[in-house]
Amino acid sequence: MKISQAPIFSFGIAGVAMLVGMTFSSCDRATETGEGEIASVDFVNDVKPILQTQCIRCHNDETIMGGLNLMNREVAMRGSSRGPVIVPGEPDKSLLYRVTLMPADEDHAMPATGAKLTEAEKKILFQWVKDGAEWPEGEAGTMMPIKANQGKA
Ligand code: HEC
Q1: Which atom of ligand 1 lies closest to the CA of 113?
Q2: Which of 20, 84, 109, 128 is most buried (CB neighbours < 10 A)?
Q3: Using one digit for the tens of pLDDT, what is the confidence trace for 91-150?
Q4: What pTM was estimated for this model as a whole?
Q5: Is the preceding omega at residue 7 within 30 degrees of 0, hence cis?
Q6: Atom of ligand 1 nearest to the CA of 85
């Protein structure tokens, strides 16, 4: 009796410990990648391609719609004719992100014409602004002029 009970008892404890451990670790994971959050966003790999393909055709050195130029950090931080559009750490105050949420029929919805951003693209902009809107100097942070595409908007 004693001999057969011992292994069952210790399995029971181990089983409980395993369950507790699993419960805790899955909670941790849920917090880290909670609703709407992306682990981390990189300007060059994640944000730059969105601005380049969706925004630059109307917000470049020559076509500066709304007074907003997004070709590099310096000009982007000057904002639009109505003021700053990027408030690092505060996506809700950053028009650069907020205009992408607006329904297409709203005046300031962006892109002004063409397809809206995907949910994934909006989340990237949100997370990037929230993380401090890091935007490198120099070539890495400079968009490509796309004169060939102008007018197709
Ligand atoms: C087809 C042209 C076009 C494209 C593409 C475009 N915009 Fe605009 N954008 C405009 C025009 C025109 C204005 C000025 C009128 C307005 O605010 O609606 C403007 C204004 C803005 C403003 C200033 C809004 C304000 O109230 O001051 C922001 C911010 C902006 N755009 C962000 C973006 C972003 C981000 C993208 C890419 C996701 C983008 N735009 C793509 C044409 C465009």
Answers
A1: 1
A2: 128
A3: 999 999 999 999 999 999 999 999 999 999 999 999 999 999 999 999 999 999 976 544
A4: 0.79
A5: no
A6: 29
